[in-house]
Design a protein that fits this description.
Elements: E1 3-5, E2 13-15, E3 37-38, H1 42-54, E4 59-63, H2 78-88, E5 91-94, H3 101-109, E6 114-118, H4 123-129, H5 136-149, E7 153-160, H6 170-178, E8 184-189, H7 206-219, E9 223-226, H8 232-244, E10 250-252, H9 256-262, E11 265-267
Parallel strand pairs: 1-10, 1-11, 2-3, 2-4, 4-5, 5-6, 6-7, 7-8, 8-9, 9-10
Length: 284
């Protein structure tokens, strides 16, 4: 059965950099950080998690703006994340960006449950769109460090169409992950976002997105998720197609009509939460 994941208040997201991001990627320009809970200090983070848990949160996504090296400045916050997990029994997912071994080990030792990791193998996207002085090999190295030294659950995310709506290295990313057998692979679809340099770029076509998902379904052993990032103009049709063809196991925030039409089971959680931790999101 395909599951509909509705994070909502059960799994809110927090930016530990407020609305600030040094990278200023051409498809985002920190616009999406505005939609998150904002904190700037470790104490604010602890207090915010406590408040969110009182309001029903059972999981938290820790994200924020990245620095010029593509990293989330999370290290000063790790002790209070560990304390919050101890005090509130909350599942914590981190969107950490690129990591070295030291940070990966700290993420594990401080009790982070999940790392949501964006795997980008298109050098043009890395350099010209994300403004990073990095190579695809840096994204591969970081992923492999996380697998070896990081938390138990690493959820790779493959962006579709981030090179101006074109399909470029998405199949390379799938082929790479085939040899690493992730428990889940999550796909994101480029959204032309107002106020960014790419606001007038056409998103990838439904056929292109479906083609990527069909290939992933054939070659990947783990679950496949369609994440929260996909354009409204294609979302309804796309969601129906992927559900009809059973191309995904998890889909985030599908239209209510799709939930009803395909009898999707609703889970109030982030879609990267592993099966072993899902029980706490099943109630109510």
């Amino acid at each position: 059965m395909i599951e509909a994941y509705i994070p909502g208040s059960r799994f809110p997201d927090i930016s530990i950099t407020g609305s600030s991001c040094q990278l200023q990627c051409d498809y985002c320009r920190a616009r999406y950080l505005r939609l998150m809970e904002h904190v700037m200090t470790p104490k604010q983070l602890y207090d915010t998690i406590r408040s969110l848990v009182k309001r029903g949160a059972r999981g938290i996504l820790i994200s924020g703006g990245f620095d010029r090296d593509g990293r989330l400045p999370i290290e000063p916050f790790l002790p209070v994340i560990r304390d919050a997990k101890r005090d509130f029994d909350v599942v914590v997912s981190v969107h950490a960006g690129l990591v070295n071994r030291e940070l990966a080990e700290k993420l594990r030792s401080h009790g982070i449950d999940i790392v949501d990791y964006e795997l980008i193998l298109d050098p043009y996207v890395i350099k010209a769109i994300k403004h990073l002085r990095k190579e695809p090999e840096d994204f591969i190295r970081s992923y492999e460090i996380l697998i070896k030294h990081g938390p138990t659950y690493i959820a790779p995310h493959i962006p579709i169409g981030f090179n101006y709506g074109k399909i470029t290295h998405e199949y390379d990313s799938i082929n790479y992950l085939r040899d690493h057998d992730p428990y889940i692979t999550i796909f994101l679809v480029f959204i032309p976002t107002k106020g960014t340099p790419m606001e007038n770029v056409e998103p990838p076509s439904i056929n292109d997105v479906v083609g990527v998902l069909e290939y992933a379904r054939r070659v990947l052993k783990g679950e496949i998720g369609l994440g929260c990032m996909r354009p409204w103009r294609i979302k309804g049709r796309l969601d129906r197609i992927v559900c009809e063809r059973k191309l995904v196991d998890r889909i985030v925030n599908p239209p209510k009509s799709v939930v009803k039409e395909y009898g999707l089971k609703i889970i109030h959680s982030c879609c990267s939460v592993p099966r072993e931790l899902l029980d706490r999101f099943m109630e109510g």
